[in-house]
Design brief:
The chain is α+β, with helices and mostly antiparallel strands. The chain folds into two domains: about 250 residues, Bactericidal permeability-increasing protein, domain 2 (Super Roll), CATH 3.15.20; about 120 residues. The chain is built from nine helices and 21 strands. Strands 2, 3, 4, 5, 6, 7, 8, 9, 10 and 19 form a ten-stranded antiparallel β-sheet that branches. It has a six-stranded antiparallel β-sheet with strand order 11-12-1-13-21-20. It has a five-stranded antiparallel β-sheet with strand order 14-15-16-17-18. Helix 6 packs across helix 9. About 10% of the residues have low confidence.
């Protein structure tokens, strides 16, 4: 690349020189110090100081990682998705089979239970436990006498109330979603067996429910349904951890609100609700302001080059720099709109250009979200950048000044959107991206998934 948006050897410099001599741009600027006068916008020392100051303010990390709002990322599971997750992790068997001592009209005996239906999770409104779920199934029951003889049989159904909770694993820097069977309660128990009907013997059936609770609590503890790893992009030091579990029973949705140590722009953060697209088991939603903070951090850490030479190649001794202004989603297209500044701060012809670049968002042939960077357009500027903004032909001829920058932005941001730090003990979660939706304040991916046992 032989020239750039702010290159004094290009048409921009000629335009500025012509303007100083009364030419058509009407800008009183040029390479000549006398013509420039006291215009500090062209002063390289001032422009470099402004660039360095802006760059130092970008990409700072929060320490410690926040625990509360605002949350920049949310993972949601539909009720069907949560059932699939449970089945994949703990199987279709439930901690309910076994024996209980029981005294009936025929004398002392033992109740033997056998599950007859697959368990189903229901995200119901449960008083006193906002993050409990109902775990329901049917069963057969047999009454065996003290001497081992058959005393009768019947059927039943049960709703087990199981608390879900998040637990941070400090040693491994991740978070577990747990089902705590040790705090299980029998929410509803229905029996119709050997003359024992729930409607007629509520107190006795209630006593059986207490025995069932104690039996399960004795034999089972916490079961890890899911482990959510931290977000790692390059060497940038970024973290992303689940901080809050939210159940939306009216929408049959469970949400995991996630927090980052990236400092969000003012006003950043998602409004998390229970809405999900019909038939989609999982969604992953990012606040677009998080992407802005991520790019600024990648610039600060060097994962995306901050300074470039005359040919647009990364070079810490170069005379071009980049700072980032904003990122929002388009209103009508799957597109992210970025704005940034390209600075020149050496060789006597300095300033900055405010540039815009679109990032088209799509699903590639591998099923991942891919970002494609569009052309760079100069919107305005200061000093030499103001001249660049006046000359459309020059801008069109010199898109390459930020070619490396825009490609790095697209590839790194694409990696962050394809968050896959989900794991289960003894199993693997296989994702399939169904769709992506970009809105002005957020980007959401619709995901199908399968849980398979590890060999």
């Amino acid at each position: 690349m032989s020239a750039s948006l702010l290159d004094p050897g290009s048409k921009v410099a000629t335009s500025g020189f012509a303007a100083c001599l009364g030419g058509g741009l009407g800008l009183a600027i040029s390479l000549l110090g006398g013509c420039r006068g006291e215009d500090v916008y062209f002063d390289c020392q001032d422009q470099e100081a402004a660039f360095r100051s802006t760059a130092e303010g970008e990409g700072t990390l929060l320490d410690p990682l926040p625990k509360g709002e605002p949350y920049p990322v949310a993972i949601k599971f539909s009720e069907a998705g949560l059932n699939r997750l449970l089945e994949g992790v703990v199987g279709k068997e439930v901690p309910f089979t076994g024996e209980l001592p029981f005294f009936w009209f025929s004398g002392p005996g033992t109740l033997e239970f056998e599950q007859t239906s697959d368990p189903v999770i229901d995200l119901a409104e449960l008083e006193g436990c906002k993050t409990c779920v109902l775990y329901s199934f049917d069963f057969n029951v047999v009454l065996v006498g003290a001497n081992g003889d058959f005393q009768g049989a019947g059927i039943g159904s049960v709703d087990l109330r199981i608390p879900l909770e998040l637990r941070e694993n400090v040693d491994t820097n991740d978070v577990s979603l747990l089902a705590d069977y040790s705090r299980l309660r029998v929410q509803n128990l229905w029996l119709s067996a050997f003359g024992l009907e729930t409607e007629e013997h509520e107190a006795l059936v209630g006593a059986v429910a207490v025995l069932l609770e104690e039996k399960v609590q004795e034999g089972f503890g916490e079961v890890e349904l899911l482990r959510l790893g931290s977000w790692a992009i390059g060497e940038s030091g970024v973290e992303l951890l689940a901080r809050k579990l939210i159940v939306f029973p009216e929408q049959d949705t469970l949400a995991l609100a996630m927090q980052s140590n990236l400092r969000l722009p003012a006003g950043g953060g998602l409004t998390i609700d229970g809405e999900m697209p019909t038939g989609v088991p999982m969604t992953l939603t990012f606040d677009t302001s998080l992407f802005q903070a991520m790019i600024e951090r990648l610039l600060a850490s060097g994962d995306i080059a901050r300074i470039y030479d005359e040919d647009g190649k990364p070079d810490e001794t170069g005379n071009y720099g980049v700072t980032f202004d904003s990122l929002v989603g388009a209103e009508t297209q799957n597109r992210l709109i970025t704005q940034f500044k390209v600075w020149r701060f050496a060789d006597g012809y300095c300033g900055y250009a405010v540039a815009a670049m679109d990032l088209d968002v799509a699903i590639d042939e591998t099923g991942n979200i891919a970002l494609t960077a569009g052309d760079v357009a100069v919107l305005s500027g200061q000093g030499s950048g103001a001249v660049a903004a006046q000359d459309d032909e020059l801008v069109a001829q010199n898109q390459g000044v930020v070619e490396n920058f825009k490609n790095d932005v697209a590839s790194n941001l694409g990696t962050s959107i394809n968050y896959d730090a989900l794991a289960t003990e003894g199993s693997s979660v296989i994702f399939e991206t169904l769709a992506v939706d970009v809105e002005p304040t957020y980007l959401e991916t619709w995901i199908d998934f399968f849980v398979v046992a590890n060999p």
